[in-house]
């Protein structure tokens, strides 16, 4: 190993956290002797376990147990809370903006490195749909999940107290766009939660609410197979959820969702889960990308043609060596990301020590999805499961995958308590504007909610 290896990890999600964790385990002697340094640059001081976002939105799991504090887990790494805005790999430097640089007004810091791991993840893939930016809600972060929960309960409060039928109907109409995991699981969990909460409203019942799932293709949940996708559509429709396949959202201006089939729904809730795209920082690097904007990678998780640059997860186009047809890439999901991070970390260590690199190889074993409490679908090792067994497998699988024993124990404890006691149906929407009451008391006025959620 060279005199000092400076490793820069961009991103603190699945790949970023697990790679840094692997590196600090494998390079323990080098870190102790000062021969290696690991820096993790991430916008948030935590990693979000995204498969638990629907349950956090439904109140089954506390929001703080869906995230893993990076500084506690990566105790031998330097964690910098900020964003990498550009990378000049030819010069081995990255421009980093932090809260301190914004306060100082001196411009981005320049971080030098020897080995670069690019794992910034993805961002929501939006379309130029009128009203989308003004009124829609995403579902990629824990803040969005809890904000959506608060929003749904607030809409029930509005519907319960208004005398205007138009306002009531709009408040009780919930439109979800995107039939992948995020959209279906979020819809299933929140409909379950709202159905339960309605028993505490004297004038709002489950039959008063309208839940609509809009999907542009002819099927939902493609990961669990066509048969289980059809089963999911049947189950959702039995719950009076309006599933519209081969349909697009054309507009949601003025709080009216206009669909491509001509339907119009006045609504105060549009949830956008229609796919993701690579993080914009990839375009601000001098590294090769494919036509979809992802980094071109080798099966060893190096960036193709760029020495000392590595990538995995949503940001990387990694060849799938287990696929029968040539040119196929691994899917950008958590199942691959966690396993790629392990190989990536090991390969960086191999590279530093002059050892041969490993090839990433993992055959897709299947998928599980929750449709609400005690409801789910699964396709695992060629076997199809539905209902309670699939839901139970979903919980067992993700409990085994959530990082740290601390989080596993807390999530299991919350699930146990949730089975013994009633759901929480409290909205804490005021958390989004914590100074509003004080500003009003001090003579000012509280900030307006741009989404009009309350």
Automatic annotation (TrEMBL):
It comes from the Bacteria. Gene3D superfamilies: 3.50.50.100. The keyword Transcription regulation does not apply. Keywords: FAD, Flavoprotein, NAD, Oxidoreductase. InterPro entries: FAD/NAD-bd_sf (IPR036188), FAD/NAD-binding_dom (IPR023753), NDH-2 (IPR045024). The keyword Flavoprotein applies. One of its GO terms (molecular function) is NADH dehydrogenase activity. Residues 6-341 form the FAD/NAD(P)-binding domain. Pfam families: Pyr_redox_2 (PF07992). Belongs to the NADH dehydrogenase family. This is NAD(P)/FAD-dependent oxidoreductase.
């Amino acid at each position: 190993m060279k005199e000092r290896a400076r490793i820069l990890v961009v991103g603190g999600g699945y790949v970023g956290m697990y790679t840094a964790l692997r590196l600090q385990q494998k390079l323990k002697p080098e870190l102790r002797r000062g021969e290696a340094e690991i820096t993790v640059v991430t916008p948030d001081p935590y990693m979000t376990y995204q498969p638990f976002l629907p349950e956090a939105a439904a109140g089954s799991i506390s929001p703080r147990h869906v995230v893993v504090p990076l500084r506690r887990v990566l105790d031998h790494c330097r964690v910098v809370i900020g964003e990498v805005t550009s990378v000049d790999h030819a010069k081995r430097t990255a421009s980093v903006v932090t809260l301190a640089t914004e306060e100082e007004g001196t411009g981005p810091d320049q971080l030098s490195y020897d080995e670069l791991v690019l794992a910034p993840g993805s961002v929501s893939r939006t379309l130029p749909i009128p009203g989308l930016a003004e009124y829609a809600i995403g579902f990629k972060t824990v803040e969005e999940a809890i904000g959506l929960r608060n929003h749904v309960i607030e809409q029930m409060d509005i519907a319960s107290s208004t005398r205007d039928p138009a306002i009531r109907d709009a408040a009780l109409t919930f439109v979800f766009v995107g039939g992948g995991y995020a959209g279906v699981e979020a819809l299933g969990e929140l409909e379950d939660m709202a159905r339960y909460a309605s028993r505490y409203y004297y004038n709002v019942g489950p039959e008063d609410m309208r839940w609509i799932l809009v999907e542009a293709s002819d099927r939902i949940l493609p990961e669990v197979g066509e048969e289980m996708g059809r089963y999911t559509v049947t189950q959702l429709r039995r719950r009076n959820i309006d599933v519209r396949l081969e349909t697009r959202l054309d507009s949601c201006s003025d709080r009216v969702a206009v669909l491509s089939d001509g339907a119009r729904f006045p609504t105060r809730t549009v949830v956008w889960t229609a796919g993701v795209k690579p993080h914009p920082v990839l375009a601000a690097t001098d590294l090769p990308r494919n036509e979809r904007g992802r980094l071109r990678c080798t099966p060893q998780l190096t960036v193709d043609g760029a020495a000392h640059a590595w990538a995995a997860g949503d940001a990387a186009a990694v060849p799938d060596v287990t696929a029968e047809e040539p040119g196929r890439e691994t899917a950008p999901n958590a199942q691959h990301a966690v396993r790629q991070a392990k190989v990536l970390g090991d390969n960086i260590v191999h590279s530093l020590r002059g050892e041969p690199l490993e090839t990433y190889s993992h055959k897709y074993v299947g998928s599980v999805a929750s449709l609400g409490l005690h409801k789910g679908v699964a396709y695992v090792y060629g076997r199809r499961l539905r209902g309670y067994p699939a839901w139970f497998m979903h919980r067992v699988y993700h409990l085994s995958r959530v990082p740290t024993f601390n989080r596993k124990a807390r999530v299991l404890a919350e699930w146990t308590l949730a089975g013994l006691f009633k759901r929480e149906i409290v909205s804490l929407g005021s958390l989004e504007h914590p100074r509003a009451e004080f500003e009003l008391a001090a003579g000012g006025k509280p900030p307006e909610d741009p989404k009009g959620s309350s």
